[in-house]
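$ run holo --ligand "adenosine monophosphate" --emit tokens
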Amino acid sequence: MTFEQTGLKPELLSAISEMGFEQPTPIQEKTIPHLINNKNDLIALAQTGTGKTAAFGLPVLHNCDVTKKDIQALILCPTRELCLQISRDLDAFSKNLRGFKNIAVYGGADISKQIRELRSGGQVVVGTPGRVHDLIRRKVLNVSQIRWMVLDEADEMLNMGFKEELDAILAETPAIKQTLLFSATMPREISNMTNKYLHSPEEISVGRKNEGAANVEHHYYVVQAKDKYATLKRVADNYPNCYAIVFCRTRMETRDVAEKLMEDGYNADALHGDLSQAQRDYVMNRFRTGQLQMLVATDVAARGLDVNSLSHVINYSLPDDPEAYIHRSGRTGRAGKSGISVSILHMRETGKLRHIEKIFNKRFERKDVPGGEEICEVQLMHLAEKVAQVEVNDSKIDPYMPAIMAKFEGLNSEEILKRFVSAEFNRFLAYYKNAPDLNVRGQERKGGDKRGRRGDRGNDYNDNGMNFSRLFINAGKKQNLNASRLLGLINEHSKRKNVEIGKIDIQRKFSFFEIDSRFEKELIQSMNQSSLDGHSLEVDRVTGEERVSVPKIKKKKKTAMDQPRAKRKRTKR
Ligand code: AMP
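-- output --
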């Protein structure tokens, strides 16, 4: 089917053609002719990214009487961001439709400006339930004559607790109108809602109920809980061009993961409920425009964020509700592109994954966490590609060329290229040198992870049965210590090379790191006699119970283990 065959007005056809819409998407193919020719209510089960805004927007615009300035359609959606997105889309579709105006009303913004806009008139109001209800109560918004009522992302509106507002708003609308309900999922509450508000609706569904986008692959890794962050870094390093939302469960986790990523030099930021609206807008805008590569967010904060070109959705923690997983993964693989939904699980989360698989009716693919060598190869090729594609500004570079050429005198082009690539690549080589295997191998079991347990002597065991010791060092960010500097120090002070290094945790004034227990003694001894930029280093071993404390190191000969517990100074992390 073509857009011309749907019967849409020429003013709309020209606008969407300018927007590059060549063919209706499946949901548009079904809804547009239905809404143009039919007055029945409609339930459309569609994921975000399927073109549903045009699916309801175009027929509403087609039927609107632009000679009148009263409200003819009310579109309700869960968030300010989605509201603005729909309003922007309607502006674009109606660009050649003279006399048409849509008004966006949403919370967290100046109400008097919205009141002025409503008073100046328009045919469509797009709003969030709280603000719409408020404006109806203030008698500024009159919905008693509307002909169309659209409930977009109805499941999200209910999840966000807008049921009361929805009831109150719907009570103000006329009995005779066409109601369109769009939802990605069909929980019982939505069925109840459709029974209450929709009259003999037609049901349209693109894809099966509760099925994610067909072009999304679902991958998962199983690691120890303590290795989740390291795994996230490996995933990011293994996909250097990734553009992803990293989903966390809590605000604290979101903040924590985003801060670590930023400290480690990734182009990331956090989106969570503790941010002001201005901060949210700032972060979202940077993500939308591609200035941020990774957005770490909670489910609630990411609602309404409309980005169509995500390459990955990363589930740093799985949601409790399988439907939230469907929403998350539906954010990638949009507008005909393919995408990957990655879940980083620890052993106890595999049960949750099985439950999601069951509801999805899909097996997810277990993948191996990429190893250091694999990542270094990916990064090397990425770097080579970047250098090959880089735009050279001849006029700016040319004046420096003689001096630069002089520096490389005697080197052939292959040698020069090697040096340029190494200048950037060495950082990855250093980080991934001796990188441990993070995969938890063997049977996925219900009750937890045998290997992941911390030993009673404060050691972790890796897959080769090798022990890790956790060490404390009295230097942190304040002393300009970062992971790669610490790796450098460890390499410098361990006589034997290829010492296995585990988790590194850099705090403000101190840090923790894990190393192969066999080299613990020699490393502690050597590091304790050294300094970092004039700051005398103190290194000691910590036991399992001391994960969140700083051992007090008085005398270098005594270890933290020798001190009575009560005397050890505790510091909150
Ligand atoms: P939506 O599900 O409404 O958020 O739409 C997802 C994306 O697909 C938006 O960027 C739309 O501009 C785009 N889109 C919608 N319909 C079409 C179409 N028929 N052809 C190409 N792109 C479309």
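-- notes --
Confidence is low (pLDDT under 50) at residues 443-465, 544-573.
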